[in-house]
Amino acid sequence: MKQERARQAIDEGIAIDEQLRMFRIEVADSELVELHNRLTGVRWAPEPVGGADGYGVSRAAVQDLVEHWRDRYNWRSWEARLNEHPQFTTTIDGTNVHFLHGRSPEPDSVPLVLSHGWPGSVAEFLDIIGPLSDPRRHGLDPAVAFDLVIPSLPGFGWSGPTPDTGWGPRRIARAWATLMRRLGYERYGAVGNDWGAYISLELGRIAPGEVVGVHVTQLPSLPDGESMYFPPTADAPALAELSPGDRKVLEGLRFFQRNLGAYYHVQAQQPQTLAHALSDSPAGLLAWTSQVMGGLEPDVLLTQRLDPLADRHGGLGAADLR
Length: 322
What we know:
- This protein is α/β, with parallel strands linked by helices.
- The protein has one domain (2-219, 261-309): Alpha/Beta hydrolase fold, catalytic domain (Rossmann fold).
- The protein contains twelve helices and seven strands.
- A seven-stranded mixed beta sheet has the order 1-2-3-5-4-6-7.
């Protein structure tokens, strides 16, 4: 009955109770002008000869992205696309939580909470909201339909800022369990990518009587005793017996451990130090983000980093993902 009341309230476009506030993304023109001015007045770091190879994201790569952001990226079109979906905010465990709610027209739809990762946002899921929530309209089986709850992680986009430390996967999972209860959902599934995968797994552990299943799209499988971000001093003898296919995967892991894990160490050990720079510099935020998302199309990469457009100007994403 509680779940049905929640569904009816959202159909009518009203807040379910005083704990849930309707929300719409409306970035002021003045904010966009300020962002344009910052992108126009970037003070570029000098790059030594050979620095574009092995020293991190190259100056040329960041300049291309900044030029695209300043001159060709259309935020208003993405803002409108996000606003096609009902949005709410609510306070959980002392922090503001923003979420999209894609309610299915199918009567037997299964509630599903989807968690994004770093450095991402709720925009990760825009392409699948329609097919999952309204499969009949997309030529899919209407028996497989979902009510979608898509929160912004605390400290990302329009969630937060977090008032204290300790917002790791388990605490976020507890917040999601509270959110789903607040929405009236008594049984639901959990889906996650990147850090969202860890959050979804934790949600299954802390609410086993409510979570009917967990699906993750990214979960590293490592040799026993290894960390994703620390290469071992020597490979274990058993690794020499790997198949050629597994050996190739291991080589990819070693490359990541030795060359691409720097962001993790800084964010795990000195997140606030980094936040000062990223909160003040859109170009710096773009460079930091593109070290792991540089392969995306520019519009997609830029939309993932909603922080400079959120009114709190969060730079790093304050969830304690370490």
